[in-house]
Design brief:
The complex is a heterodimer. Chain A is of the alpha/beta class. Chain A contains 9 helices and 12 strands. Chain A has a single domain (about 35-45, about 75-235), classed as P-loop containing nucleotide triphosphate hydrolases (Rossmann fold). The longest helix of chain A has 16 residues, at about 170-185. Chain A is globular and about 45 Å long. Chain A starts with 7 loop residues before the first strand and ends in a 6-residue tail after the last helix. By secondary structure, chain B is mostly helical. Chain B has helices at about 5-30, 35-65, 75-95, 95-100, 100-130, 135-160, 170-175, 185-205, 210-220, 220-225, 230-255, 265-280, 285-305, 320-330, 345; strands at about 165, 175-180, 180-185, 260. In chain B, the strands form 2 sheets. A two-stranded antiparallel ribbon of chain B has the order 1-4. Chain B has a two-stranded antiparallel ribbon with strand order 2-3. The two termini of chain B are about 30 Å apart. The chains are: A alpha/beta, B mainly alpha. The interface of A and B includes residues 81, 88, 92 and 101 of A.
Chain lengths: ~240, ~350
């Protein structure tokens, strides 16, 4: 499954917010075709990690690489064009635009023909077909999630970032959400999930990293992490 | 709940009905204006309102993307009208104004659009962009400062006297018959140009790539950036388009009133802001409709409501009517007539 070169890689990345040291020597690798999750509680540095990938936070040391190319200091638009897109926390659709416009705007930077991706997304989420002309704000939560994923996929990303896909959703929708992630991964997209819900994320992931106050404290395959006693106690809600 | 507000509402409605009833009684007893006079008031109101609508678009668009009221927008409009005057005057001297009025007015329009666009973009770059991260009140206050700065820059450069555009050709001063209605040519031209411009803007915002990025930035800057949209460039585009609309309005003002001065932008600016609020700020078709409605209130309102109370010289009171309309809309429907929700809520 894993090819030799990671699609997305952090090499000893440090970031600062003013005088505050946020990410401390973070290294991680995401290989083509994988689902990799980054687990951690509040203020562990999960969001900063995503912002660093997207160029919204520039590392003070270390390197961020996309397919072997160092992208430190690139603008967000350049990084998006290079093949990274994100499904933001809480979906954040353009509520006043139609579903079709939301999908099309996902391909904003693409100059090639996007109709094949459009068809593929509608095949993946047939429910959206009847909703294309509807304003995105009028959709149900589950449908909005489909649009948010579809919008990100329209950029035909090399790696798809998912920010807290379980955040603030009813349990049914969370399960549905992780189904969607598995589905798009099976269709060939590499996925990097940032999540607090460790059980859910590890159930679909190939590999996991655990972030604690800006440091990677655990890194292992998902089954190993699920079996790890330290992990079970600290993150999987088991009382030891 | 709020008894005071309730009394104000009921009182406003009673006064409105009283005034209209008084006017109707006067009309029935043959004292009021004739049917033709009413028609002229309506047409003049629509023409002026269409111009307000064009300026209002600039307020609404900037509010949409940046969330503050750009009070310097009235001066953006004035700058176009002012530079247009010098071009018109030159064209009058070389006699193009008389020999080929269509070409002449197109050149004036072009110069006015270019000036207003340029002024709007420069103001954004110098005055507003450095304040992007400040609380909204800061650029708002800055815009008032810019407004005075532009007024007195123009006063200093070109003097304080009112500058009169050359007289339009006779064809525009005479009446044209349209669908059985006799309309003054210049007013008809103003309405046609305004409607065409508004339709053009609507298509631009709805159908083009830049238009779509403007809407995206208005809804959510962070996510727009995540789509690869250049937020700064989109904000510049918003100011440019709003400025262009104000430039068109500058030429229309000249067609309606001929006179421009450094202070010309003030009252129409405030009126257009009123129109934008009336239609629901941030909502573009609302701004257009709000402009036309405000023009109508202003054109017809004094005669229709105030004359009924037996107040003399009511046409002097059109500004009172316009701003009363604003207050009433804010009392009865704070989000404006066509406002969905206040966009601040979406922004959160």
């Amino acid at each position: 499954m894993a090819s030799s070169r990671p699609v997305l890689e952090f090499r000893n990345v440090h970031t600062h917010y003013g005088p505050v040291h946020i990410l401390k020597d973070v290294s991680l690798s995401i290989y083509e075709g994988q689902i990799v999750c980054l687990l951690g509680g509040n203020a562990s540095g999960k969001t900063t990690t995503l912002k660093t990938v997207l160029g919204m936070v520039v590392p003070t040391a270390g390197e961020v690489l996309i397919e072997g190319e160092v992208v430190n200091g690139w603008r967000t638009a350049q990084i998006v064009a290079r093949g990274v897109s994100m499904v933001p926390e809480n979906r954040r659709l353009f509520k006043r635009m139609t579903v079709r416009e939301n999908l099309e705007i996902g391909a904003y930077l693409r100059k090639d023909d996007t109709s094949a991706d459009y068809e593929r997304i509608l095949d993946m989420f047939p429910r959206l077909k009847e909703r294309l002309g509807q304003r995105a704000g009028t959709l149900s939560g589950g449908e909005q999630q489909m649009v948010a994923v579809g919008r990100a996929l329209m950029a035909r990303p090399r790696v798809l970032l998912m920010d807290e896909p379980s955040m603030g959703l009813a349990p049914v929708l969370v399960a549905q959400n992780f189904d969607i992630i598995r589905q798009i991964n099976e269709a060939g997209t590499t996925v990097f999930v940032v999540e607090q819900n460790a059980n859910m994320a590890l159930s679909i992931a190939d590999y996991g990293y655990v972030l604690q106050t800006g440091k990677i404290v655990l890194a292992d395959t998902a089954p190993n992490l699920l079996a790890n006693p330290e992990m079970r106690q600290a993150y999987l809600g088991e009382v030891g | 709940m709020d008894t005071f507000l309730w009394i104000v509402r009921v009182g406003a409605i009673i006064l409105l009905i009283w005034g209209v009833a008084g006017t109707v009684v006067q009309g029935l007893s043959g004292q009021g204006p004739t049917g033709e006079a009413w028609r002229d008031l309506v047409v003049a109101g629509i023409a002026q309102g269409a111009m307000y609508g064009l300026i209002a678009l600039g307020y609404s668009m900037v509010y949409g993307v940046l969330g503050f009221i750009n009070f310097a927008h009235g001066e953006v409009f004035m700058s176009g009208g002012m530079v247009g005057f010098f071009v018109a005057n030159y064209l009058w001297e070389v006699r193009l104004w008389e020999t080929n009025f269509v070409l002449a007015i197109l050149l004036v329009l072009l110069s006015s659009i270019l000036t207003s666009t340029l002024v709007a973009v420069i103001v954004e770059r110098i005055a507003y962009r450095p304040l992007r991260a400040s609380p909204r009140l800061i650029p708002l206050i800055t815009s008032i400062g810019i407004s005075f700065f532009l007024q007195y820059t123009f006063a200093g450069l070109f003097g304080v006297a009112v500058k009169n555009y050359p007289p339009p050709p006779d064809s525009l001063r005479s009446r044209v018959s349209l669908l059985g209605l006799e309309i003054e040519g210049s007013k008809l031209l103003v309405i046609v140009v305004a409607v065409a411009t508004m339709v053009g803007l609507y298509l631009f915002v709805e159908k083009t790539r830049t238009g779509r990025s403007i809407r995206a930035v208005a809804e959510d800057k962070e996510i727009a950036a995540l789509m690869g949209i250049d937020v700064n460039r989109t904000i510049v585009a918003t100011f440019a388009v709003g400025g262009a609309m104000a430039g068109v309005a500058g030429t229309l003002w000249a067609l309606l009133f001929r006179g421009v001065s450094f202070i010309t932008g003030f009252l129409p600016g405030i009126k257009a802001f009123t129109a934008a609020v009336l239609g629901g700020i941030g909502n573009l078709p609302g701004a257009m409709a709000g402009g036309v409605l405000l023009g109508l209130f202003e054109g017809v309102g004094p005669q229709l409501v105030l004359a009924g109370f037996g107040i003399p010289g009511v046409s002097q009171l059109k500004d009172v009517v316009a701003f009363t309309a604003l207050v009433l809309v804010l009392i009865f429907k704070p989000t404006g007539l066509f406002g969905e929700r206040l966009s601040a809520e979406d922004r959160a």
